């Protein structure tokens, strides 16, 4: 009996214990689950924000370095769309070099993780009577799938209520998005454009159909065009024709069999729209032309040639054409877009590239064979922690970060092998440092970074005036749009500083008329006599809403001691009378070539 009583007591005790523990455990899981769901929802929202940014900016969350254009090629490395900078996937730099800015999927995932690591730290989770805290720094891993994005956050979350504590180490979120699938369509379209140049081919067709190129026409009078009208016709035709281009997919139906011409043999899963707006920055030059007039004289009107019985006009005009096209891939309410420059040089499309020539891959980054050590310092040999990157041909690999130990900022790790490569050091507040090396054998490399100093720009401008200030040093070139941008970061080195000041005004260039006379056969009804025929020329009026009226150029070397003790960059420029005619405007550009700037630190 005693034994049975003891057994019964034990059973009751176990049941009570299970009930109590189960209740506590249930309470613990319930509170932790509520906090976890709230945190996952915040991660989901932040990820959707990041996807929208990347989709709108051609896959980039953090934009690549800006490169300004030039009068020769008026395109920077960014396309301005609705006030947002979108990096070109293909563009031509200000000095005429072709360049690519196509983010690899691994690169997008890395930027997404970096962005989320910062943003999720702003997530606020409030549960009444519960203490929630995170331990250490979060680690974020991203994976872009075709129809979703997987996010894994490793960030211990401690949930405490009264005497009960629960810890959630990892937080996994699956965000529904067509980003990956749209990006794949974008890559296929870009690779086809890069290899087949279908945009350039359509553009050449537009030139031949809507502009004078190479023809022979029967005529005894000269053929005359204005470059302004030809340019307008080309732009409007490009806008209409580029917008008609379609890709193989089920998002459209041909209403006319003739529209088969606009189909490009690239399979896509989503709707694709191509956009060119005539108001966008476009480079168009034509030869021969003089004073805005393109003219072809007839053959057969000269003395001694009338006997052939007819006259003809033969002409051959050569065009340089460069303009942006925005490619938009859409699915429901999501849009992925990227811009490219279409380039025609002397009536010939740019040289085609191999299909994958412009797409950066990370294969070399996965084969790190040589052990090396990198030290990073400022110009005074003080240690500076910096992120280290390795570049071989068109591939850039993140290597690691130097850490300060025993008075040195040092990183010892493995690097890929490459005969001619660059080691790049980046640190907040410093100019990037570059060193060319061969990594086919172990090496030790010290790198020195120049500290940047922020200066406030001081220029004497009126409310309706603005200035473009261009700074060019040995390694980089950048522009500041004052007063919208009123600060600049400079380091110890020499700069070429160019300023152009613009004023809002209304300069009306009136209609320009003139008369051109030629001799044609048939005077007095006799074929061997010439008679004079005259033709009226008219260039339509136009209105310019902003004109340049000042600026200048100088070369200045800034020493670190000066920059360190200053907080303002004063720029004094030359000004000229506001132009009231096209001749005066042209004269100002000539004056700007010799105008000088006064640049002082304060």
What kind of sheet is the major sheet? Answer: 5 strands, antiparallel
Helical proportion? Answer: 10-25%
Any idea what the radius of gyration is?
33 Å
Number of domains: 4
Uncertain residue ranges:
18-27, 300-310, 354-362, 522-528
Strand content: 35-45%
Number of strands: 39
- From the N-terminal CA to the C-terminal CA, the straight-line distance is 101 Å
State the secondary-structure class.
alpha+beta
Number of helices: 7
Average pLDDT across residues? 83
The geometry reads as globular
Can I get a quick summary?
The chain folds into four domains: 2-64 and 101-177, no CATH class; 201-349, no CATH class; 367-449, Immunoglobulin-like, CATH 2.60.40.1120; 453-601, no CATH class.
Structure description:
The chain is an alpha+beta fold and 602 residues long. The chain has four domains: 2-64 and 101-177, no CATH class; 201-349, no CATH class; 367-449, Immunoglobulin-like, CATH 2.60.40.1120; 453-601, no CATH class. The chain contains seven helices and 39 strands. Strands 13, 14, 18, 19 and 20 form a five-stranded antiparallel β-sheet that branches. Strands 31-30-33-36-38 form a five-stranded antiparallel β-sheet. Strands 5, 6, 7 and 8 form a four-stranded antiparallel β-sheet that branches. Strand 30 and strand 31 (477-482) form a beta hairpin. The longest helix has 55 residues, at 2-56. The termini are far apart.
Keywords:
single chain; 602 residues; alpha+beta; Immunoglobulin-like; 4 domains; 5-stranded antiparallel β-sheet; 22% helix; globular
């Amino acid at each position: 009996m005693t034994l049975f009583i003891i057994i019964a007591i034990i059973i009751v005790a176990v049941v009570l214990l299970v009930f109590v523990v189960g209740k506590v455990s249930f309470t613990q899981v319930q509170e932790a689950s509520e906090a976890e769901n709230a945190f996952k929802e915040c991660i989901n929202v932040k990820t959707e924000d990041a996807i929208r940014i990347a989709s709108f900016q051609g896959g980039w969350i953090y934009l690549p370095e800006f490169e300004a254009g030039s009068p020769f090629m008026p395109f920077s490395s960014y396309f301005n769309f609705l006030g947002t900078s979108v990096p070109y996937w293909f563009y031509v730099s200000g000095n005429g070099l072709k360049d690519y800015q196509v983010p690899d999927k691994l690169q997008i995932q890395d930027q997404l993780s970096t962005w989320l690591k910062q943003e999720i730290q702003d997530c606020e989770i409030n549960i009444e009577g519960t203490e929630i805290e995170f331990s250490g720094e979060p680690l974020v891993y991203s994976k872009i799938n075709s129809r979703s994005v997987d996010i894994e956050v490793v960030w211990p979350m401690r949930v405490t209520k009264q005497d009960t504590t629960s810890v959630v180490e990892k937080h996994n979120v699956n965000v529904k998005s067509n980003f990956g699938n749209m990006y794949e369509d974008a890559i296929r379209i870009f690779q086809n454009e890069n290899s087949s140049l279908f945009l350039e081919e359509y553009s050449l067709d537009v030139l031949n159909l809507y502009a004078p190129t190479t023809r022979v026409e029967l005529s005894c009078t000269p053929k005359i065009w204005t470059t302004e009208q030809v340019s307008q016709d080309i732009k409007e035709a490009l806008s209409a024709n580029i917008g008609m281009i379609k890709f193989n997919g089920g998002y459209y139906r041909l209403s006319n069999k003739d529209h088969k011409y606009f189909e490009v043999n690239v399979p896509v899963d989503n709707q694709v729209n191509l956009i060119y707006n005539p108001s966008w920055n476009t480079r168009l030059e034509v030869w021969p032309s003089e004073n805005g007039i393109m003219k072809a004289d007839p053959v057969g009107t000269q003395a001694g040639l009338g006997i052939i019985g007819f006259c003809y006009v033969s002409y051959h005009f050569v065009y340089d054409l460069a303009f942006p096209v925005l490619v938009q891939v859409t699915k429901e309410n999501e849009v992925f877009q990227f811009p490219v420059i279409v380039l025609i040089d002397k009536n010939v499309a740019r040289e085609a590239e191999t299909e994958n020539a412009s797409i950066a891959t990370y294969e070399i980054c996965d084969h790190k064979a040589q052990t090396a050590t990198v030290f990073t310092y400022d110009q005074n040999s003080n240690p500076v922690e910096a992120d280290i990157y390795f570049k071989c041909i068109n591939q850039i690999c993140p290597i690691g970060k130097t850490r300060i130990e025993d008075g040195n900022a040092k990183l010892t790790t493995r690097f890929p092998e490459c005969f001619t490569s660059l080691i790049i050091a980046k640190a907040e507040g410093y100019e990037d440092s570059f060193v060319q090396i061969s990594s086919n054998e172990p090496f030790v490399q010290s790198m020195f970074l120049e500290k940047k100093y922020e200066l406030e720009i001081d220029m004497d401008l009126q409310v309706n005036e603005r200035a473009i200030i261009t700074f060019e040093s040995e390694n980089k070139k950048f522009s500041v749009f004052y007063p919208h941008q009123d600060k600049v970061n400079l380091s110890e080195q020499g700069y070429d500083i160019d300023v152009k000041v613009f004023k809002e005004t209304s300069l009306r260039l009136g209609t320009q008329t003139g008369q051109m006379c030629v001799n044609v056969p048939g005077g007095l009804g006799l074929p061997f006599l010439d008679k004079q025929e005259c033709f009226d020329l008219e260039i339509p009026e136009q209105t310019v809403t902003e004109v340049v009226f000042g600026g200048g150029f100088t070369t200045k070397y800034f020493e670190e001691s000066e920059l360190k003790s200053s907080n303002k960059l004063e720029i004094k420029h030359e000004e000229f009378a506001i132009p009231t005619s096209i001749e005066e405007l042209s004269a100002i550009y000539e004056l700007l070539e010799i105008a000088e700037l006064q640049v002082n630190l304060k």
